[in-house]
Each structure stands twice: as structure tokens, then as C-alpha cells.
Amino acid sequence: MRNNMISCSAPGKIYLFGEHAVVYGETAIGCAIELRTRVRVELCDSIIIQSEIGRTGIDFEKHPYISAVVEKMSEIVPIDGVHLKVNSEIPVGSGLSSSAAVTIASIGALNKMFGCGLSLEEIAKMGHEIEIQVQGAASPTDTYVSTFGGVVTIPDRKKLKTPDCGIVIGDTGVFASTKELVANVRKLRESYPHLIEPLMIVIGGISKTAEPFFQTGDYSSIGKLMNVNQGLLDALGVNTLELSKLIYSSRGAGAFGSKSTGGGGGGCMVALAASDKCTQVAEAITGAGGKAIVTKPTEQGLRLE
């Protein structure tokens, strides 16, 4: 047995702007964050997947994404036995794209281990196909940002300059179904198209207005626009009291701006803050009942560890 061992990691992501509106073709801005999922791969006699959930073989109940990756990669190269060990810093089900990160890191590690020669574009594309297979529907954004890193406009995939400041994430610990929230927003849009359609266009406009501020490093303006975006997410009905408490406490502690990220209805909020303000912003979030994680944007997507 070749004693090969490969370890790859991929980052989680947040939406700085535009979620929900992106469903209707409007512009959004995604940002890779320095919270990573690492997947270590070793050759062995059978297929073993190990994570904090437990140790299984191919198991679509417990390890759906990695199981799908192993099956998909087996179509390219025969995989008889492999031990995949997952280690993640990204809280699951909190709107930080934990599924995209584990999928991309797994594809990356197997690609390297078995010399499949997949390009980053192909890895991102396969990751998206796997997310669709497991979830039924998925945006290509999560897997794209996880593969390539940095700050990216969606859908046109323009790379923006990565902010040189901190990001504080506040996790409400409340699980919310993105699928349900997206469906609720769709119903609202169908009931009041003359009101909700312009709101979507304005949210897309916020993303476009923010773009030049990334290039100039004007974080205070980015923060103000995040606050405006949050007001419109509230109007769409995806805000909650728990999220609001964390959002307002982070602003009170000196963040440039803050908003929910992803589906809303629970999950996480994100605050953009100067590096020297991150600790006090995190303390304010904890004081308001959230679990705070201090991180930062990252240029690096999929990488060999």
C-alpha cells in the first residue's frame, strides 16, 4: 500500500450583499472567510469517512456530501479504499457554506491523491453538481467562492479587492431552512410584485454601489451599505429578534456595519470591523446572546495543506 497522505482545505463564505435578490438575477457579493474545512486523505483497504458526526463508510445519511464526492471521483479513477478525515472550523447549517467547503476540500484532496488533473474550474463545477444532488437545488456561488477564495460579484464573477479588516460572525444558534425562507420571499413577491420587485432591484443596486468601495478600501461606506441592505432584508421578512439583537449590538460596539448572511430567519449575522475593534464587537455579540467568531476575509480558496 502506498503510504500517501494528502490534506486539503477550503474556506467558508459569507454574503456581504445581495442574498435573496440574487435568486432573481440581481447582483450579490460573496466573500471567502478564514474559517476552513480540512480533509485529510490516506489510502486504506476500504472507504472510511470520519468526522465529528462519527465514522462511516459511504453513507448518504450521515456524510452525504463526502459520499457523493467519493462516488463521483470513482467515475474518473478507481477508488478501492480511502480514509477521509474531516476537521471543520465552520459551524454547520449557519449560512457559512459549510457544505460547499467540505465538498470542495474533499474533491481537492482526492484529485491530488489520485492525480485526476481536474482544474479549479472543474472542481468548482463538480462541487456544484454534488450540492444539487444532495440538496435538490444550490447556487453555484458557494462552491465557486470556496474554490477560488476572495471577494466575488455574483453572477458575473468579478474579483474585487479583498478587504484588509476583520469580520466578526455572530451565530444565533437558531436553525433556519433556507429553502423555506426563499419560498416565503417568493410568495411575498407574488402577492405584492409592484413592491417586492423594486426592492430586489434596489438590493442588487446596493451591491453595485458597494463595488468601487472595495477597490478604494472605504470600509466605512461598505458598512453603511450593509446596514441599508439589512433594512431591506427585514422588509422581506427574513430578519428575527435574535439576529437583530446581535446586529444592533455589533453596530453599537463600533463595527463599520452588520447584517444577516445567507437565508436569514436564524443562522448567522456578520459584522465588518477594523482589526482593533474585533474583540469588543465579539464581546458585544456574546453579551447579546450570540456565539461570536472573529475571522477575516481570505484571498485563498482551495489549498493544499
TrEMBL record:
PROSITE patterns found in the cross-reference section? GHMP_KINASES_ATP (PS00627)
Annotated active site residues, numbered on this chain, are: D142
The keyword Kinase is annotated on this UniProt entry:
yes
Q: Which cofactor does it need?
A: Mg(2+)
Q: Where is the GHMP kinase N-terminal domain?
A: 65-150
User: Could you state a single Gene Ontology molecular function term?
Assistant: mevalonate kinase activity
Show the catalytic activity.
Answer: (R)-mevalonate + ATP = (R)-5-phosphomevalonate + ADP + H(+)
Q: Where does this protein come from, organism-wise? A: Methanosarcina acetivorans (strain ATCC 35395 / DSM 2834 / JCM 12185 / C2A)
Q: Which gene encodes it?
A: mvk
Location (main, coarse): cytoplasm
Q: What is this protein called?
A: Mevalonate kinase
> What quaternary structure, including any partners, is listed in this protein's UniProt entry?
Homodimer.
